[in-house]
Design brief:
With 129 residues, this protein is of the alpha+beta class. The chain contains 4 helices and 4 strands. It starts with 26 loop residues before the first strand and ends in a 16-residue tail after the last helix.
C-alpha cells in the first residue's frame, strides 16, 4: 500500500531555495540582550527597560518604519552600558553605540530619527584567510 503524499503547488519554491520577504519597516535597531540582562536600567519617566522605552517613543513619534528588537551578544560588552546597533550604520560599517545610565534618552531618539549622512567607513579588517 502506498502512502499518500502532498504535491507542492507549481508556484512553491523548490526545497533549499531561499525566498525573499519584504519587511514592513525600513530600519532595524538591535539592542544587545546580554547587556539588557546584565543592566537592569530603566529609562525615562515611564521607568521602562531601554528596548521598551524606544519602542514606545518611536510609536509616539509616529515612526512605525523603525523596528526595535533584541539580539544576541555583540561581544562589545561595555562596562555599565547597553550596546545598540542601527541597520543604516551597520551597512556603512560605522561603530556601534553605547547607552549608559544617566545618558539623555532623547539623544537616542535624535540619533534614530536623524537623516542618514554619509560618513567614513570603518577600515576593513586585516584578518587573513
Amino acid at each position: 500500500m502506498s502512502l499518500p503524499f502532498r504535491r507542492q503547488p507549481p508556484s512553491a519554491p523548490t526545497r533549499g531555495a531561499l525566498t525573499a520577504a519584504r519587511a514592513p519597516w525600513s530600519q532595524l535597531v538591535l539592542v544587545c540582550s546580554e547587556c539588557m540582562s546584565r543592566r537592569q536600567d530603566v529609562v525615562g519617566e515611564e521607568r521602562l527597560p531601554l528596548r521598551k522605552w524606544l519602542k514606545k517613543a518611536l510609536k509616539r513619534a509616529g515612526r512605525d518604519d523603525i523596528h526595535v528588537t533584541e539580539a544576541e551578544c555583540f561581544d562589545l560588552c561595555p562596562k555599565r552600558g547597553i550596546a545598540l546597533a542601527c541597520s543604516r550604520e551597520l551597512q556603512d560599517r560605522r561603530p556601534l553605540r553605547v547607552y549608559r545610565r544617566g545618558d539623555d534618552p532623547e539623544l537616542l531618539m535624535k540619533w534614530l530619527l536623524e537623516e542618514p549622512q554619509p560618513g567614513p567607513a570603518a577600515p576593513p579588517s586585516s584578518g587573513g584567510a
